[in-house]
Amino acid sequence: MERIRFFLEHVKHVRIIRYILFTFLALLMVTVLYYHVKPQQYSIRPFDISKETIRSPITIEDKDTTEKLKKEAAEKVTDVYTLKKEYAENRVDLISSLFTTILDIQEETGSLKNDSEIIKKLKERLPQEWFTYLSEDEWIRLLTAKSEEIRVAKEASVTAVHSIMNEPITQEELQKAKMRVQNELKYVMLPSSLKDIVTKLTKEAIIPNVIYDRAATEEKRRQAMDEVKPVKILQGQIIVEEGQFITNEIYHQLKLVGLLENDHSIQPFIGLLLLVILLIAPIIYGFTRWIDDGQQTNTYLLIYVTIFTITVIIMELIRLLPESDTFSTGYLVPVAFGTMLTRILLSERLAIMTSVIYSICGSVIFNEGMNGTFHASIAVYLLTSALSGSLFLQKELRKAKIWQAGFFVSFINIVVMLAMILMKNGHYSMMEMSMFLLMALASGFFSAIFTIGLLPFFEASFGILSSMKLIELSNPNHPLLRKILTEAPGTYHHSIMVANLAEAACEAIGANGLLARVACYYHDIGKTKRPRYFIENQIGGNPHDQLSPQLSKNIIIAHVTDGVAILKKYRMPKEIIDIAEQHHGTTLLKYFYHKATQQMDYVLEEEFRYPGPKPQTKEAAVISIADSVEAAVRSLANPSQEKIEKLVRSIIADRLQDNQFNECDITLRELELVAKSLCETLNGVFHSRIEYPDIRKEKVK
Fold first, then answer.
1. Taking a C-beta distance cutoff of 8 angstroms, is the pair 519, 486 a contact?
2. Which of 588, 527, 532, 536 is nearest to 562 (CA)?
3. Quick one: which of 191, 203, 527, 529 has the most CB atoms within 10 Å?
4. Model-wide pTM > 0.90
5. DSSP 148-207
6. Is residue 463 left, alpha or beta, with left meaning phi > 0 and alpha meaning psi from -120 to 50?
7. For residue 483, what are the CA distances in angstroms to 136, 526, 528?
């Protein structure tokens, strides 16, 4: 421990140590958490047999499979054709014109008997391709038919073409559409031979009336592809079961979610690095804003890093304990001890902030068996446990209070545990419920044990004067306080009065009131060596009347060095020793100085001053004022508010004029607050009282 103190004494002013400690804290979190963030990887090849059931650690889209399904959906889309209604009208006009032409030719060639001339006349009027549909004999038969038969044929053919062509006809459906012509003309009243000829011509009038619509087809395919939902591998989804054959598709999925050993993705590391930066940032901010003490910042930061490291190590050790599928061993973590130690040794606000950091780290450490990176239930549990531990210690600190805090943490843990169990609506057996509650109870209990057990180590190793240590030192049964009470009762009463004054004044300016009170109890411990030479302990005469001013001065000044020696002998905290050494600063013993000037022609003033040093802290400065004020007020015959205020302000002004506060950071505004606080406290002590009548005189009357 002495080596630790020696090391801290030499590095507490080295600024780079602060950066090294912050870096160590970040590396600690990265090292511990990366194992829990990095996905488990397997040595698996295609066509192997899986030795265990493997679940996906993340939710991710299988883009290759999704793209394959989209292509399949697009291929299933049939081509889009557009119906051209004008085709029906054109073909109706065409077939109608054919029969009209035949009628016209019949009228024009009524006198012609030569078939060849009639055919020649017909070829001049009709397109050449029509003559491929019928033989010459069939054309002659059609031209020699009766005009009435031609008109009937025309109407039947036009009707059939119109009826058939108004429906979509693709190239594939053309023959089927032509077959419908026969049904349409089935009941037409025409000679059989003529009906066959009309049927042939009508069939030739039927053509496909739809065309391929490229734009519509592409749009339909796009819609089909958009309707395909992305194929996702869900977090926690079983990719392969134990004993299952590893197909190429399964192997692809394992590779996609990063579970193969040949997958060296740095994404988890980058994500963890960003998280650690977010966790370190508030710690740096907290030490900058709440614990920015140039003399002790490195020491406080080392304490914080040590507490944090111990807490994380305990989390890791508990994680190694066997656990079941029902509960996590994370509920056993005594995380509250970390925040309670931070609260006692450093800062309440820092402890509250650290509670959040512990809960995040714990939720990552105990995420085994969870689908995600964070275990939400553990995070809530650890957060409430850590917060309850630090918040319960907001009042006076004693060991009994820490035990109470431990039981309070256990109670909060049990309540949170029951809340989570009931919200999950799980059906747990009595054994499982008992295990949950036992872990919650043990967490608070061990938090108190670790806090009480580690607190002396931190106080001794780092020389930290905690609130609990100060309260222990304020116990009247402390050997030094009993020594003052028995050997110098007047000094004891004086110390109690100064403590009351100094504590209130320190709290008024934001200084450590508890430290001031306890330091006041011990600041005059040196007077116990020669108690009769100090006026508060004198009964029946002043021994200084028979001593020279120089000797009296030496005795009075010696109580400072004697007190420091006694405090060091009892291994008292450095802060209390410093205040005992500084509470008189380099002030002048005016009484003996003036007495010496009356007896001698030349007296050196420096010989009648305390050796110092001057007050180095606000607490020491306030105590030096309160010490002089208390002694001066006791010398007043009838202290009134005006006299007290005048006395207090004159003492402060005298100290300022004597440059006693040049080495501490107390301001004039704070000195004004100190003056007001001292006056208020003294006015409460020396308030006016009513004069009670003499009881015996009242009886005589």
1. no
2. 527
3. 527
4. no
5. HHHHHHHHHHHHHHHHHHTS---STTHHHHHHHHHHHTTT--S-HHHHHHHHHHHHHH--
6. left
7. 150, 11, 7
In single-letter form, the type of residue at position 140 comes to I
Q: How many of the other CB atoms lie within 10 Å of CB of 158?
A: 20
CB 355 within 8 A of CB 383: yes
d(CA 447, CA 444): 5
Buried b (16+ CB within 10 A) or exposed e, 636-662: eeebeeeebbebbeebbeebeeeebbe
How far, in Å, CA of 269 to CA of 33, rounded?
Answer: 10
Q: Distance (Å, rounded) from C-alpha 580 to C-alpha 567?
A: 9
Please tell me the distance from the alpha carbon of residue 388 to that of residue 374, in angstroms, as a whole number: 22
Distance (Å, whole) CA 571 – CA 334: 32
Cis peptide upstream of residue 613 (ω within 30 degrees of 0): yes
> Under a CB-based contact definition with an 8 Å cutoff, are residues 379 and 359 in contact?
yes
Cβ-contact 206, 169 below 8 angstroms? yes
Contacts of 414 (CB under 8 A, 6+ apart): 437, 440, 441
Token pair of 398, please? 């004693």
Contact 203, 114 (CB under 8 A): no
Q: Is residue 60 within a helix (H) or strand (E), and if so which, with residue range?
A: strand 60-61
The answer to whether the CB of 563 falls within 8 A of the CB of 623 is no
Both tokens of residue 578? 């410093």
d(CA 67, CA 265): 24
- The Cα-based distances of 25 to 274, 276, 279, 310, 379 in angstroms read 14, 9, 10, 12, 20
| Tens digit of each residue's pLDDT (9 = 90 or more) over 440-467 | 999 999 999 999 888 888 877 777 777 7
Containing H/E element for 82?
A: strand 81-83
- 564-606: per-residue pLDDT in tens? 999 999 989 888 999 999 999 999 998 888 888 888 878 888 8
Dihedral in degrees, nearest 10, Cα atoms 146, 151, 152, 157: 120
